[in-house]
């Protein structure tokens, strides 16, 4: 069986971040209007193959399509 090379735009596998609505998170990278370390709360969690979240951050910004590349569970 022939093996195919990954697509040139394919990224490495994401580790799934399993969060629920109202879970507290923090930004782990600079996002538009949200500096690294800003805390927020998940208010929408969706997706089957790609788990993504919409988060309302403490500085008033609200961003969607966030995953483990952008946020982590806050302690």
Provide an overview of this structure:
By secondary structure, the protein is an all-beta fold. The chain has a domain of 50 residues: SH3 type barrels (Roll). Helix content is 0%, strand content 35%. It contains no helices and five strands. The chain has a five-stranded antiparallel sheet with strand order 4-3-2-1-5, with no helix packed on it. The radius of gyration is 14 Å and the shape is elongated. The termini are far apart. The mean pLDDT is 88.
Task: Please provide a brief summary of the model.
The protein is mainly β and 75 residues long. It is 0% helix and 35% strand. It has strands spanning 24-27, 39-46, 52-57, 62-66, 71-73.
CATH class of the domain at 24-73: Mainly Beta
Read across the widest sheet, the strand sequence of neighbours is 4-3-2-1-5
Q: Describe the biggest sheet?
A: 5 strands, antiparallel
* Quaternary structure state of the chains depicted: single chain
| Low confidence ranges | none
Q: How much strand content do the residues show?
A: 25-35%
Task: Name the descriptors.
single chain, 75 residues, mainly beta, SH3 type barrels, five-stranded antiparallel beta sheet, 5 strands, elongated
Write the SSE topology.
Blueprint: E1 24-27, E2 39-46, E3 52-57, E4 62-66, E5 71-73
Antiparallel strand pairs: 1-2, 1-5, 2-3, 3-4
